[in-house]
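Anyone up for a design puzzle?
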């Protein structure tokens, strides 16, 4: 099995429908408006975000979040992943009635349990939610900067890309950068190449969440390749959300051929009927990546991971050592 690494997965979006239904039973909540026949259903990005919020609202206690992170990372390790970064959203926790600190500690505990059981290394990236507005994103950045949890290593922004202007969020990212956190930001998914350029100009991230619509502007693709900015590409998410009509039209191979540093990620796996293993499978089948090319994708992810250098060296050594692991 090719060793895998994931940089872009929203932890609440990774909750399986079965787990969410069990949570709903526990709290006496109806899920029929977003889960049917054991699967999430929604019709467009806006209703996807509503389903995401509804599922997130069913995780309410520390115990709930420990189980969520432990289940996701343990499963990921079974798919051959050696490393996982998950986006965590303190705003969603507060909406569920849990303090940001209790939420972060609980997810950290779940990650630690998965590591003890499987060896998978995990980190958390605090995200602000763009459509909650710049003050809320700055608040999330201040929390990320102050929380000092050893597994919180980055700050990012998710949510509705078509809301607001990137420059209005620059202060939030300056706060996070000042605290030594790695920086990533969603752009170029639902908004066009201009959103990627704005992210590079105003936020100065080392990674971009998605970024795939940069392909609309060849000069921008050259800039991304030249600056070594890493793209957290989520092919199945892009096709299911109709960013591209099918895998044949997905720009992953063009971005790779242009020298961009690309990685493979599952985004919100059960919502898109995917998994990290499926993303690697799509890259093999539709983008013609052989095993050594897939290993290079994992290497790029580990090189771009928000970890301390000794941990990165260990992970890269494990990648080189692993032939047919698991
Ligand atoms: N939040 C969860 N999934 C997301 C996505 N694919 N894009 C933006 N925000 C998100
Ligand atoms: Zn995302």
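Challenge accepted. My sequence:
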């Amino acid at each position: 099995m090719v060793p895998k690494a994931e940089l872009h997965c929203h932890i609440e979006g990774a909750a399986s429908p079965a787990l969410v239904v069990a949570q709903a039973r526990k709290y006496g909540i109806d899920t029929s408006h977003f889960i049917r026949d054991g699967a999430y259903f929604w019709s467009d990005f806006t209703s996807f975000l509503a389903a995401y919020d509804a599922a997130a609202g069913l995780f309410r206690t520390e115990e709930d979040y420990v189980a969520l992170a432990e289940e996701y990372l343990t499963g990921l390790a079974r798919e051959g992943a050696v490393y996982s970064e998950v986006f965590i959203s303190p705003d969603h926790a507060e909406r569920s009635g849990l303090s940001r600190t209790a939420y972060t500690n609980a997810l950290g505990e779940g990650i630690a349990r998965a590591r003890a059981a499987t060896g998978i290394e995990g980190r958390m990236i605090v995200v602000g939610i763009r459509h909650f507005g710049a003050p809320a994103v700055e608040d999330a950045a201040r929390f990320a900067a102050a929380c000092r949890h050893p597994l919180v290593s980055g700050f990012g922004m998710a949510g509705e890309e078509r809301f607001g202007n990137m420059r209005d969020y620059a202060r939030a990212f300056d706060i996070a950068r000042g605290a030594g956190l790695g920086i990533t930001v969603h752009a170029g998914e639902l908004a066009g190449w201009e959103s990627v350029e704005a992210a590079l100009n105003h936020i100065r991230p080392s990674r971009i969440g998605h970024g795939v619509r940069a392909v609309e502007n060849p000069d921008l693709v050259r800039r991304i390749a030249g600056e070594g900015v890493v793209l957290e590409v989520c092919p199945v998410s892009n096709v299911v959300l109709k960013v591209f009509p099918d895998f044949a039209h997905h720009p992953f191979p063009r971005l790779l051929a242009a020298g961009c540093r690309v990685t493979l990620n599952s985004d919100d796996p059960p919502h898109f009927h995917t998994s990290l293993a499926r993303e690697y499978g799509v890259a093999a089948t539709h983008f013609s990546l052989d095993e050594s090319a897939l290993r290079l994708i994992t290497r790029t992810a580990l090189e771009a991971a928000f970890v301390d250098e000794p941990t990165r060296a260990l992970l890269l050594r494990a990648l080189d050592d692993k032939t047919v692991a698991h």
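A detail worth pointing out: Strands lie at 4-6, 35-36, 39-40, 81-88, 121-129, 152-158, 182-187, 207-210, 230-233, 261-264.
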